[in-house]
Amino acid sequence: MKKNKIKGTSKKIPPSISIQASYKSLTGRIMSKTEIQHSIEKMPLGSILSVLSDLCSDTLDNSKLIRRFNTHLLKQGKTPLKIDNELICSHQGLMLLWKWIIAYGDVDTVSSFSYDEEEVFYDIILLNLALVDHYSSPLDDNIKYEFFRNLFFNHTTYTYISLSRSVILYTEIAQNRDYFDTKDFMDIGEFFFERYGYTIRDYLHVLTTLWAGYTGNSSKGRIAMDKNYFKRARFYPIAERILDELSLSIEERREWAIDTLNDRWNFTQFIEKPLLEVIPGGYICFHEKLIEELFINQLYFKIRHLYNNNDSQILSFMGRCFEKYVEMLTEKAINLSSLPYELIKEFEWKGRRSPDVLIRLGNKLLAVEVKGHRLKLDSIIGSDSKSIDGDLNRMLNKPISQLYKCIHFLSDRNHHVMKGVEEIHLITVSYGGIPTFLPFEKEFQSIKDSFELPISTINHMDISEYEEMMGLIGNRNAIQLFQMLKNKENISPYESFSNFYARSSFGKKGSRLIRSRFYEIIDETLDLIEKNYNH
Questions:
Q1: How far apart are CA 200 and CA 193, in angstroms?
Q2: Distances (CA, A) of 211 to 163, 246, 273, 361
Q3: What pLDDT, in 10s, does the model give residues 138-174?
Q4: Is residue 391 predicted with pLDDT exceeding 90?
Q5: Which of 146, 203, 225, 449 is the most exposed place for a label (fewest CB within 10 A)?
Q6: CA–CA gap between residue 485 and residue 437 (Å, rounded)
């Protein structure tokens, strides 16, 4: 098939998206669901868990996987498969395979780790290819929503950044009364300890140790983690409790797996409890990315669940924490920059609030609106396109329109921050990511056509992209912020900032604030382990 076309159609594939090969496309027939189930039932469970966990912690280099697969075929005297411009394996496919294995694997063989690794790898790839035929998306008008969910599922995160962000957000900002009006402050730290029996920082120490232990394990597919790993740590009793919270056995997961087999995007239980307890106190992780997710969203929901579902005050408080975090990032970057940027923090004027952050450089102005929004669960795992449309409106269209109205108000009434401004840029920053995908991005960019004021660029970012932008401007040899925004507009207006950064020659600088907190929490965690060990 041509590289940029979907087989059997004239539809073009976006450059950041690849097509998955299937069992039928390679063999000419579909392996039935019954055949898939029987194959899994016959396999020694311990073996498949081991190799599958290894694969899920890999980057899935397609060329290497194809060579490995075909090498096994050659050893069996079989003809290698020809796979052109298609993926032989994907992380989504492997996560779906996890569900099938939990649903139908033979638990009596869960401790069986004696196997031919290449034979098991071959079987896993075949099963992954077979599942593609049963979960393929129809090529209709809703295909763009499938691409959207796929982009969200495969977005890149960096654990050290997510960890550092959680340290700043939940142990520094959220627990500092000086940042809030007395009536707005909520002591989430004390409430967290009362409910769970450990502090937020305790929780982060355990997750940090878990992450380091898993990513540093050269044989991740074996029993990658057991409770004894934490015995050197002063927080061992807390670690035991948290491991129990984050894990379930195969038997405990089986009913959920069977009930959700037909839901191609529903991995909620894997996200909430990313550790599979294979033997008492011995764990395998489904996917390395799920450990990162613990720092990003799961801690947020752990805090959110301290309060009633209809409690709007906690949502407002967490939103204010996020706004303060963005302000701190911006202030740190501007202070480090060699260019004379001016930071204008949020203020009230004539009964209305200004944008959350304003950055000026001469006659240029950037206005930033900060929202602690995330995609709703239905947008991630559901099949209803209306949920995604609603989230795009809530997270992109409304905030950018709100931001424009605010700037228009200040300009119309000749506020001094607008004096001499000739070039205006608008950015909305959300906590959760919104995949940047051409059909939706064109709709978002078209909003600018309705603005009366001349706006140079409008953009949306998730927090990781904003962190990266602040890292880029917060160094001595940085490209000017406004030049960067215009370059993106001219070169790739419909591309995500994360991809734009990666393709550009900026280099990955990272925020100094982020780096300092990362080293701080690592040193603190090591100190708790080493002092207890030496004691």
A1: 8
A2: 10, 13, 14, 41
A3: 655 678 888 888 888 877 778 889 999 999 999 999 9
A4: yes
A5: 449
A6: 18
CA distance 227 to 208: 15
Q: What number of residues does the chain have? A: 535
> Can you say whether the dihedral through the CA atoms of 124, 125, 131, 136 is positive or negative?
positive
If 0-12 CB within 10 Å is exposed, 13-18 middle and 19+ buried, where does residue 267 land? buried
Q: Which stretch of DSSP H or E encloses residue 364?
A: strand 364-371
**Residue 523 to residue 198: CA distance in whole angstroms:** 20
Parallel/antiparallel/unpaired status of strands 342-345 and 282-285? unpaired
Rounded CA separation 274/277 (Å): 10
In the predicted structure, residue 90 carries a pLDDT above the cut 60: yes
Task: Report d(CA 264, CA 279) in Å as an integer.
Answer: 28
* Interval 290-349: pLDDT, tens: 888 888 888 999 999 999 988 999 999 999 999 999 999 999 999 999 899 999 999 998
Question: Residue 453, Cβ neighbours under 10 Å: how many?
Answer: 12
Confidence (pLDDT) at 475: 75
Q: Which of 223, 456, 293, 310 is nearest to 302 (CA)?
A: 293
> What is d(CA 199, CA 187) in angstroms, rounded to the nearest whole number?
12
What is the reported pLDDT for 175? Answer: 95
Count CB atoms within 10 A of the CB of residue 452. 9
The answer for residues whose C-beta is within 8 angstroms of residue 177's C-beta and 6 or more apart is: 185
Measured CA to CA, the distance from residue 153 to residue 169 in angstroms comes to: 24
Which tokens belong to 67? 């060579």
d(Cα 510, Cα 29) in Å, to the nearest integer?
Answer: 49
Mapping DSSP to helix (H, G, I), strand (E, B) and coil, where does residue 352 land?
Answer: strand
> Model pTM?
0.89
Name the percent of the chain lying above pLDDT 70.
91
Q: Which two tokens stand for residue 255?
A: 């009913």
* The pLDDT value given to residue 4: 42
Residue 216: which pLDDT band, with cuts at 50, 70 and 90? low
Q: How confident is the model at residue 203 (pLDDT cuts 50, 70, 90)?
A: very high
In Å, what is the CA distance from 234 to each residue of 136, 205, 225, 241? 49, 10, 18, 14
Among candidate residues 119, 236, 197, the one with its CA nearest the CA of residue 525: 236
Looking at 35-159, which runs of residues are DSSP E strands? 86-87
Cα separations (Å) of 444 from 82, 169, 409, 485?
Answer: 41, 29, 22, 16
Supply the DSSP symbol for 369.
E
Q: Which two tokens stand for residue 197?
A: 């029996």
Contact of 184 with 320, CB cutoff 8 Å: yes
Cα–Cα distance, 388 to 437 (Å, whole number)? 12
User: Cα(238)–Cα(244) distance, rounded to whole angstroms?
Assistant: 10
Distance (Å, whole) CA 137 – CA 13: 14
The two three-digit tokens of residue 58, written as one number? 């890999």
Helix (H, G, I), strand (E, B) or coil at 143: helix
What pLDDT is recorded for position 114? 64
Span 351-372, pLDDT tens digits:
899 999 999 999 999 999 999 9
